[in-house]
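Take a specimen:
=====
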Amino acid sequence: MATWTVDAGAYADSLEDRAGRTTKAEEIRAQIAAFREAELTGRTASGHRYLLPGARREAAWMRLHTLEEEVARSYLDDSVVQAEAEEHVRRELPREQARTWSEKIAGSRLSTGAREVAVDALHAAHEAATARLRTAHAWRTATMSLSALLVVLAGGAVLAQSRLGKDTFVPTPDGVEMPAWALLLVVMVAGVVGATLTSLLTIYALGRRAPKDIRWFDPRPAQVTVKLATGLWTAVLLVWLVGGGLVTGTYTSLTSVLIIAVIGGFAQESVTHLLDKVADTLVVREVDDGTAGKGTA
């Protein structure tokens, strides 16, 4: 079972507990039961299954927010609703918007519309969180699509090299009796090895880009994948530049080719740095799954 479904179920449990302190306990609990039957099993209310996991996750995310707002509207204690709304806007909204909503909540505490103001603030925070989740999923889809394209192009390059008579992509060093396509494939594999070392170190081991919360969105698998796919091409490029005499130096053996290819795999970091920066912006704040504290989302 996916981690996010476990967290969504835990948050549904929290909402169910809180529903007992509302004026619509049975109605809200029925909605939570319907949520479990639909989004958490991957089947929509009409009985159709979601084609894409991201669509299912987004539907569950939005439904949890709707349920939380329903609980807030009928909760028995206004102060609890206001406190949760303030926490949400402080976490999810930009600083200026958060300050504006906090002032609205504070100014309405003694008025008859205090509950609705708090629920509106809660909804605004939920909208911001949903927009961020959609952007994160779009980034992951684009990144994985780019990775697939690079791998397909690599396969096409190896196939094309096998059909060509000369070493088009990677100049063969003197004394190496190896088909040009096989040498190209070896260079790509060496590039992937170099990319693996750097990507695992920078994304996981060193923790420089470790997100605060990965339960609803974890960019790291997609980051590593695109680095590996890019590494095989940066390796080919560097070997081609060195072997073609376009940069200082040359290679004279298969060993030197492999060393250059591994270094080329390392070089993918300079190419994928922009994607890493985008991923960092998507996980700067904690993505609330509703399992912490009082079960906020």
Notes: Residues 114-163 form the longest helix (50 residues).
